Amino acid sequence: MAALAVGPVRLDGDARLRDRPNAGLIAGLRDAGVRIDDDGRGRAPFTVHGTGRVPGGAVTVDASESSQVVSGLLLAAARFDEGLDLRLSGGVPSMPHVDMTVTTLRGHGVDVVATERGWRVAPGPIAARDVVVEPDLSNAAPSSPPPWSPAAG
């Protein structure tokens, strides 16, 4: 999405983000016509030079390090001028993750077709929807035991 902005967008984060493999995603975006400076690291931090548009078209990626490479490209592909003909050069660690992405895109009116080597996403709008998302409340729990005890009554 940063490539659809106008101007440079720098992506960075904590040490965990900097450890995440992004070489496949960066290579795929470059093949789609996006200029990205990563100093050859294939990881954050990197700068996406947005021009307000992405040509798109045929792109081959190696997603063997992360299924998120595929999902990230698919999620943005409908906004690319030519859409995206995404082809895989290797395996995908989690097909259920990619299947969920495709199902979600279709639920928002995006034309996604499975092909022999990947997926084809037609250019077009992405419909907004009201969706109720169950919260993950596990992080809302207190980090230490409460000052009371059930035995104390």
TrEMBL record:
Residues 4-141 form the Enolpyruvate transferase domain. SUPFAM superfamilies: EPT/RTPC-like. The keyword Isomerase does not apply. Keywords: Transferase. It comes from the Bacteria. This is Enolpyruvate transferase domain-containing protein. It comes from Blastococcus brunescens. The lineage of its organism: Bacteria, Bacillati, Actinomycetota, Actinomycetes, Geodermatophilales.
